[in-house]
Amino acid sequence: MALIVHKYGGTSMGSTERIRNVAKRVAKWARAGHQMVVVPSAMSGETNRLLGLAKELSPEIPTPALMRELDMIAATGEQVSVGLLAIALQAEGMQAVSYTGWQVPIKTDSAYTKARIESIDDERVRADLAAGKVVIITGFQGIDSDGHITTLGRGGSDTSAVAVAAAMKAAECLIYTDVDGVYTTDPRVVPEARRLHTITFEEMLEMASLGSKVLQIRSVEFAGKYRVPLRVLSSFTPWDIDIDEEARSGTLITFEEDVKMEQAVVSGIAFNRDEAKLTVMGVPDKPGIAYQILGPIADANIDIDVIIQNVSHDGKTDFSFTVHRNDYARALDLLKTQVGPACNAAQVVGDPKICKVSIVGIGMRSHVGVASKMFRALSEEGINIQMISTSEIKTSVVIDEKYMELAVRALHKAFDLELQTT
Ligand code: ADP
Ligand code: ASP
Ligand code: MG
Fold first, then answer.
1. Residue 9 C-alpha to ligand 2 middle, in angstroms?
2. What angle (nearest 5°) sits at the alpha carbon of residue 289, between those of residues 287 and 291?
């Protein structure tokens, strides 16, 4: 008998019929003798609907007071889900009880809309499990030290599930979703994408941080830190399939760099449309200029991603960097009104219509020429590369947003991702 955590995403919880299926699947696992903790998301579309209502009434500039209320509102989606799932399980003849984040409690910091989990008190949950109940805990939400409701950022139910699994030392955390695993790239963009049977934790971390939204990045960080066995699998298989077959399906996030993984130079392609580019042109090329430009951006709490500084001509240089698109207007304003004039810039320009496409693979460590193959594939499609950033196991390029799908497809082909066997 093992303690297992199941997480079900919004589509998997999307209707009462689907919730009934989730209940039947969970009941199957419980009847096989496992202690079950289930972490569902809000029903699909619900979080967007709730935040949309809030937006209709919100002032232009978000204040901390507004952010608090956004979490108050968004957290209700998950509260409905857990109650419905508990009822569906009871209808299956199971004992089931649901809890919100504050009832567990799942304690977080106070960063509304992107709070971090600090601790989970599992006493109540353990007592229920010992009494033979299935315990259902809201994803996405927690409570801060002053008793305010917080949420963990979009896609945060993944993180709730993995954090609960870590805190309770669960044997495995199964993330049930609307695809049957982690693919070489988003199968919605490249239909030929192939499911990976395994992916290393490091690669999954890169894929998630570079834009693959199949797992929220913090859930992967938690899994790595606490060594939580993690699997991504489909909630759309018939609920009554053989439990052992189900337990082996999908994609396992591994911690071992096995031989097969080393053969695959590139394991996957990620993309991200959420960034914008800013360029400060004609600044003096002298020590301290990067700090002069980026210091005020950091002080304004704006995260910077890719950075390039061009070679200088006549002692002047251009400096470009990317930020999240949500921070674009604020960053541009800061550069135009303060930073640009302070460092005698000739001009400040911005481009929100960019995207970042990345190839990821631990095999890149031991292979040369991977980046140049990437650049060739893009040039053959006539795609101009605006910025490049590399690390040991990834190469990212910033390109015009309108070429994103073309670039992802071309790279998927260039690295033979449809053909490899894993
Ligand atoms: P859930 O509601 O279950 O949390 P999400 O929509 O957050 O589901 O994540 C699943 C989606 O992630 C898939 O439908 C797919 O379009 C997308 N996705 C992006 N990159 C990948 C990838 N590499 N492999 C699988 N799915 C991916
Ligand atoms: N319901 C939240 C969202 O839509 C959390 C999640 O689904 O993981 O972002
Ligand atoms: Mg998700």
1. 7
2. 105
